[in-house]
């Protein structure tokens, strides 16, 4: 990291009208910007499915198979006041204590009782705060099955709307398998089953990893996080089969392309630079990368257009450099690309 740089160097003006509030009619028909890291050339592609022209037999696309949980739950007091919440993670093995983002918490007192609106059998106790997060204590275990009954898909707050039935399908990727995230790995939203089949028919290989995405992905960085390179922790898992295939592809000189920044975080976490190998395993990662660091694990990245001053924008800048990243973003603004989760995509090679 250049110590003379600040987060302000990774800011850009973005009118709210440029934020995609809804997805395009068909997943693979969003626009695609292709950026060549070596030449700096930018190419505008009308539809994402034309990405096949930029992929070759032997390429390996690594996707995040996480599935978004219905963690946005409307809690009510005995008198009927509603508190919107997003459950982040359980704090104990029994699944009784949860931390969450809780709206209007100043109106609550310690020990107040809250009921999930769709439940007659469960209730929780408001047990205080930790910074921007709140602690809720349940009498009985709460798990993903409960959230599927009580909750709503936690679409990003910047969409400034309630989730619809369509979001339950469209805010999940075709790869979604393992419940546990509060946000979608948005680069994967551009793929359809037909596009995947076509690419596989062309000799492109798809490999899964898993990262449970936390709400921190939506939060702008502050200067302290920037200087100390501290980021929120997220749980990941990579199977032995995936690691073996990745190592074989690397030895054969095949390109490994990350489908999204979440997959890239996993790959950089499990890649041993000293031995130049991927190591299977599971655990937590708080990896933070910014320009000046070197990404060793991939040769390409598919990604959406991210928030200003965000860790995801810094990760993209680490891969292609700050100047090229900002060049691409300003080009996207000029060419009316759609931004954020339901927006258009970039291929960086």
Automatic annotation (TrEMBL):
The EC category is transferase
Q: In which pathway does it act?
A: tRNA modification; tRNA-queuosine biosynthesis
GO molecular function per UniProt: S-adenosylmethionine:tRNA ribosyltransferase-isomerase activity
List the GO terms this entry assigns under cellular component, sorted alphabetically.
cytoplasm
Task: Kindly list any coiled-coil regions of this protein.
Answer: none
Q: Its catalytic activity?
A: 7-aminomethyl-7-carbaguanosine(34) in tRNA + S-adenosyl-L-methionine = epoxyqueuosine(34) in tRNA + adenine + L-methionine + 2 H(+)
The answer to whether keyword Cell inner membrane applies is no
User: Which keywords, in A-to-Z order, does the entry hold?
Assistant: Cytoplasm, Glycosyltransferase, Isomerase, Queuosine biosynthesis, S-adenosyl-L-methionine, Transferase
- Major subcellular site: cytoplasm
The UniProt entry, under InterPro entries, shows: QueA, QueA_dom1, QueA_dom2, QueA_sf
What's the Enzyme Commission number for this chain?
2.4.99.17
What compartments host this protein? Cytoplasm
Q: Which GO terms describe its biological process?
A: tRNA queuosine(34) biosynthetic process
- Kindly state the subunit structure of this protein: Monomer.
Question: Member of which family?
Answer: Belongs to the QueA family.
Q: What does this protein do?
A: Transfers and isomerizes the ribose moiety from AdoMet to the 7-aminomethyl group of 7-deazaguanine (preQ1-tRNA) to give epoxyqueuosine (oQ-tRNA).
Q: Which HAMAP family match?
A: QueA
Listed name of the protein: S-adenosylmethionine:tRNA ribosyltransferase-isomerase
The source organism is: Leptospira ognonensis
Q: Which gene encodes it?
A: queA
């Amino acid at each position: 990291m250049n110590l003379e740089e600040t987060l302000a160097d990774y800011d850009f003006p973005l009118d709210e009208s440029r934020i995609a509030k809804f997805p395009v009619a068909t997943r693979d028909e969003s626009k695609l910007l292709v950026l060549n890291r070596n030449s700096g050339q930018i190419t505008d592609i009308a539809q994402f499915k034309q990405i096949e022209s930029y992929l070759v037999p032997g390429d390996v696309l690594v996707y995040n198979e996480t599935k978004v949980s219905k963690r946005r739950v409307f809690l009510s007091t005995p008198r009927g006041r509603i508190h919107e919440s997003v459950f982040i993670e359980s704090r104990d093995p029994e699944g009784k204590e949860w931390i969450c983002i809780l709206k209007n918490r100043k109106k609550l007192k310690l020990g107040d009782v809250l009921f999930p609106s769709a439940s007659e059998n469960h209730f929780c106790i408001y047990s205080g705060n930790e910074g921007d997060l709140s602690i809720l204590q349940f009498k009985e275990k709460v798990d993903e099955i409960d959230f599927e009954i009580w909750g709503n898909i936690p679409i990003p707050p910047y969409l400034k709307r309630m989730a619809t039935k369509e979001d339950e399908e469209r805010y999940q990727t075709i790869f979604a398998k393992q419940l546990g995230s509060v946000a979608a790995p948005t680069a994967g939203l551009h793929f359809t089953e037909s596009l995947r089949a076509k690419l596989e028919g062309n000799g492109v290989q798809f490999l899964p990893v898993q990262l449970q995405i936390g709400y921190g992905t939506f939060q702008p960085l502050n200067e302290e996080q920037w200087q100390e390179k501290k980021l929120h922790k997220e749980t990941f898992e990579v199977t032995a089969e995936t690691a073996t295939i990745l190592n074989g592809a690397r030895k054969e000189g095949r390109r490994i392309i990350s489908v999204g920044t979440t997959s890239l975080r996993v790959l950089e976490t499990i890649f041993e630079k000293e031995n130049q190998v991927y190591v299977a395993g599971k655990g937590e990662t708080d990896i933070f990368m910014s320009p000046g660091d070197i990404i060793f694990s991939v040769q390409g990245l598919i990604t959406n257009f991210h928030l200003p001053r965000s860790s995801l924008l810094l990760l993209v800048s680490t891969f292609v450099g700050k100047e090229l990243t900002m060049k691409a973003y300003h080009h996207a603004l000029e060419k009316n690309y759609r931004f954020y989760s339901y927006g258009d995509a970039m291929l960086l090679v």
